[in-house]
Design a protein that fits this description.
This protein is an alpha+beta fold. It has a single domain, classed as Alpha-D-Glucose-1,6-Bisphosphate, Chain A, domain 4 (2-Layer Sandwich), CATH 3.30.530. The chain is built from 3 helices and 9 strands; from the N terminus they run βββααββββββα. α1 packs across α2.
């Protein structure tokens, strides 16, 4: 089973895969930004648990699987990028796993396009689509969009 690039059944080194997908929301980028940049917002749709330590490291937990990440980049009401720490002693820092959330508002329609980029070892397109569709459906329930 995979969880954000972690192959839980086989810990061998794998190639990286870049998955991107756009979702349409009937909500403002300002409203959505809270959900991609804060502990409370992320725990509403993206993770089971999340907290930030004194070193500004994000501690995520999905189905009991802990992962650490740093907020690598962000711009208010526009995007965030979380870069994940390696899970093993093989400290591969040249090509780390990351997830990137971009919000692109369309002023004419009032729609915001939410683009996700998931860069990890996970390469099962069907599983990635299902996982991200489930995340986005949960988020749409929260924001009403």
């Amino acid at each position: 089973m995979y969880l954000f690039g972690i192959n839980k059944t086989n810990k061998t080194k794998m190639s990286k895969y870049k998955f991107t997908k756009d979702y349409e929301f009937k909500a403002s980028a300002k409203n959505l930004y809270h959900y991609i940049s804060t502990v409370n917002g992320l725990s509403d749709w993206f993770v089971d648990k999340v907290w930030v330590d004194e070193a500004h490291v994000f501690h995520f937990e999905w189905q009991g699987e802990p992962l650490k990440a740093i907020l690598k980049m962000h711009r208010l009401n526009a995007f965030v990028k979380f870069e994940f720490f390696p899970k093993t002693d093989d400290l591969e820092t040249t090509n780390p796993n990351y997830v990137d959330f971009h919000l692109e508002p369309d002023e004419l329609t009032g729609v915001t396009y939410f683009k996700i980029t998931d860069f990890s070892e996970m390469n099962d397109l069907e599983e990635l689509n299902e996982m991200w569709d489930n995340f986005m459906n949960t988020l749409k329930e929260k924001v009403g969009g």
